Amino acid sequence: MDNTTPTENRKLASQTINYWKILLIFLSRWYWVAATVLISFVMAWIYVRSITPIYITSASLKLDGDQQQQMASLPGSPVNYRPFNQNQIQTEGIIMRSEDVILNALKNLDYKISYYLEGRVRVTELYPKQPFQVDILTQDSVNFSRATYTVKPVDNRTFEMSTSDDNNQRLKKYRYGQAISMGNMVFTVKTEIPAIGNYSFKFNGTRDLYGRAAGGLNVFEQEKNTNIMGVTHTDSNPVFSANVLNEIIKQYVKNDATLKKRSAKQTIDYLDSQIAFLDAQVNKSGNKLSSFQSDNKLIDPTSDRQLGSSKLSNLQNQIAELQLQELGIQQLETQVKNNRDRIQFNLNLEGTNSTLLTGLITQLNGLIINRENKLQNFNADAQPIQDINRQINEVKQAIVTNIRLLHERNQKTISYINGQIGQANQALGSIPAKQNDFAKLQSNFDINQRMFSMLFERKLSAQISSAAVISGATIISAAQPSFFPISPVPKKIYSSYLFMGLFTGLGLILLVRILNPYLYDIETIEGLTATPIIGVILKYHKKVGLGESVLSIERPKSIFAESVRSVRTNLSFMASDQETKVICITSEVSGEGKSFVSLNLAGTLSIIDKKVILIAADLRKSKLHYAFGSDNHIGLSSYLSKQADLADIIFTDERHNIDYITSGPVPPNPSELLHHKSMGTLIEKLRESYEYIIIDTAPVGLVSDSVPLIRKADINLFIIRSGVSKFRAATIPDRLSKEYGLNNIAIILNSFGNEKLHANIYTTNYAHSNTGTYYYSNYTGYGKSGYYDDEKSWWEFWKRKG
Q1: Are both 340 and 408 inside the same structural domain?
Q2: Per-position b or e across 749-780, b if 16+ CB within 10 A of its CB
Q3: Which domain holds residue 345?
Q4: Which of 186, 203, 220 is the last residue of a domain?
Q5: What residues are paired with 186 via a beta bridge?
Q6: So what's the pLDDT on residue 635?
Q7: For residue 699, is the peptide bond before it cis, meaning its omega torsion is within 30 degrees of 0?
Q8: The last residue of a domain, from among 733, 749, 764
Q9: Where, if anywhere, are coiled coils annotated (predicted)?
Q10: What pLDDT does residue 199 have?
């Protein structure tokens, strides 16, 4: 047979996806998935046991916009009373989280001492329970130790205690009722500590619980487009959460009413000071008028005098009104320039302040509230605070400008009226001096009397407004403790962790497949090469000793031997025109089973009385002689180097009835010896005596020693070992065929174990392939008894003979 003829054009086998194989891949490592699910379950159990549960309590309030609208309609009500805006719920929530509200709420709680019970996994706060009583005798209100005190009863009179401030955590003995000076305070443990359980306690200040109270608070709109505000609080202690939430909403309601009464109170205080002054002025002017009448015996001025006096009195009354308004304007200007709080009108300046001024003051108050809210979350130097300060300064500048314009207008009006008063005085100058003096005194008395009456009426109006002010919020439902945690929820934790374990197991299977660089099955090889696969040799389940390599003879009834016989059968179809077949066996690298396949193939041929000789042609690292127990002192290298004759290097294994030639001593030039014509002469001589000449060569992926033997062989078998050979090994047969024009190369898949994890997901469609196929089986359907006819799986122990 001419081995140099060009190989026929072949194409890769047609393959289709087999979804059953995909399912088998995952089922083959079901225990991986089971293990990851079990690990996830254990992690979930540990998480649920170790994480402190979080509880939520809720309450609701009604924000009474109608009440505010009624207050805005009352005479003399402050201008900052506005009907409630539903969009301000979040703003009200920030006010509720303000420091004043929360600190006042905490003062109403029994917060000074916290008791704890230490469990195996976590520490539980016992609030509101007190397993034993601790009394504080003296304590610095601010600078005292926040350490944890661990206590342990000794007997009914004494106990031991240690503090976390002590690095050594040393226990010291104390008596019940003994005054203990520690941590900048003096306290005593009055009642007996329970014997069961590990207890501890710590002292708290008001601000120590501020973050806990404010951090868990959340405000939201209970129902859309309503004035119902929902409030929730989350904490690890449901009773503490409910108590602190109830106190916070109570303080919020109280604080809301206090803020609304503050403006009315400021107005009343201002009016009281002015009324006291005008009362003195009325008395003074009245006394002067009475004295003047008595001294001058004046009873009733003439009607002209009365008209002039009346006109003068009206003008002076207007001057007084303008001066009073000027006082209000000056007070407002002082507030704007010097006060960082919201601006309150102390007088009703209607007719003086324009609509623009009212809008600017409302805008300024809104910006100040916004700044107070943001200061809860930002520092004073933060950019959002700086932006609001800039807006506040701009609005204040606009207010100051508006006040200046009002002040100029009042001064002009006062100047004009003063001119009118001058004219009225000139008119009265023509009246006799006594009557003129009387008219002036009468006018001054009337002005003071009217001013006093006006201020007194406004005071009554402000008092009525203050009495009518109530809080703009009403508690609808108080908070109740909820003992069902919102986190962690065991069902959700277990389900999420179980799904995580499931996907981790499946992902691990996919990852192992993706990272796998090795060949495992027939379909993968057929998808990479057009070279035909002549057979599949199954994996032997036990480690094979050097003297037991010929398993096809020693275990003739095993499935392994049957797989070797299948290869033997398919060899008869290759080089069928040759009486003596030279079979060259190679692979990519060492360790892929060339010698093992060579031995077993020779053994299965010898069983059918074929004359077989096995040649160890790997002159560098041959192990074939170990199988026959040879010392390898003489062999192929000896013959090729003309140090021995042919008869000297041929040995016979009587046990297996196989003739063989060992590699011999390692020569310095193995490649040159194999390329020498002596190798061809050796093969021709052996053709005369043997039907099969099996040559175990060096791996072609490492050295070129086997190339001359491959070109001389009738059949070339390329060994691919399942789980050892890498993907690139499957492309070498095609490359050899192309480079050397060979068409006698076939592949043997060695050590096939039907590894489903790395199985190819495709099924080869041989009807549409042009690869030149051979019949063989992977023997996966031969029962479940293993390789031996008498071997049973461990779970089939009842089938074993006693």
Answers
A1: yes
A2: bbbbebbbbbbbbbbbeeeebebeebebeebe
A3: 279-301+314-473
A4: 203
A5: 138, 181
A6: 93
A7: no
A8: 764
A9: 305-335
A10: 96
441 and 531 together in one domain: no
Please, are residues 99 and 210 in contact by the beta-carbon 8 Å criterion? yes
Q: What is the CATH number of the domain that holds 607?
A: 3.40.50.300
Closest CA to 10 of 799, 738, 790: 738
Residue 123 maps to a domain: yes
The number of distinct structural domains making up the chain is: 4
Which secondary structure element, helix H or strand E, spans residue 159, and what is its range?
Answer: strand 158-163
d(Cα 601, Cα 656) in Å, to the nearest integer? 12
pLDDT score for 243: 94
Residue 426: both structure tokens together: 């000139």
pLDDT of residue 200: 95
- Is residue 291 in a domain? yes
Strand 612-616 relative to strand 658-661, pairing: parallel
662 located within any domain: yes
Amino acid at 701: G
**Token pair of 383 as six digits:** 């950019």
What's residue 3's pLDDT? Answer: 44
Q: At what angle do helices 238-296 and 89-96 cross, to 10 degrees?
A: 90
630-657 in b/e burial notation, b at 16+ Cβ within 10 A? Answer: bebebbbbbbbbeebeeeebbbebeebb
* CA proximity to 460, closest of 48, 178, 751, 75: 75
Q: Are residues 504 and 568 in the same domain?
A: no
Note the pLDDT of residue 346: 47
The dihedral over CA atoms of 306, 311, 315, 317, expressed in degrees to the nearest 10, equals 40
Rounded to an integer, what distance in angstroms lies between the CA atom of residue 317 and that of residue 319?
A: 5
Are 381 and 427 contained in the same domain? yes
Q: Are residues 746 and 631 in the same domain?
A: yes
Tell me how far apart the terminal alpha carbons of the chain are, to the nearest angstrom.
57
Q: Over the Cα atoms of the chain, what is R_g?
A: 54
The DSSP element (H or E) to which 278 belongs, if any, is helix 238-296
Taking 50 as the pLDDT cut, the residues of the chain under it are: 1-8, 66-84, 86, 346-348, 350-351, 353, 782-788, 790, 798-802
DSSP assignment of 548-606, as one string? G--HHHHSTTSHHHHHHHHHHHHHTTTTTT-SSEEEEEEESSTTSSHHHHHHHHHHHHH
Pair (577, 497) in one structural domain: no
Q: In which residue are the tokens 């194989």 written?
A: 21
Cα(599)–Cα(30) distance, rounded to whole angstroms? 37
Residue 107, Cβ neighbours under 10 Å: how many?
11
Contact present, 114 and 201 (Cβ < 8 Å): yes
- Domain match, 342 and 327 both: yes
Two tokens, residue 184: 């900048």
Structure tokens at 108: 């109403």
Contact 242, 57 (CB under 8 A): yes
Within a domain: residue 793? no
CA-based nearest residue to 289, from 447, 157, 59:
447
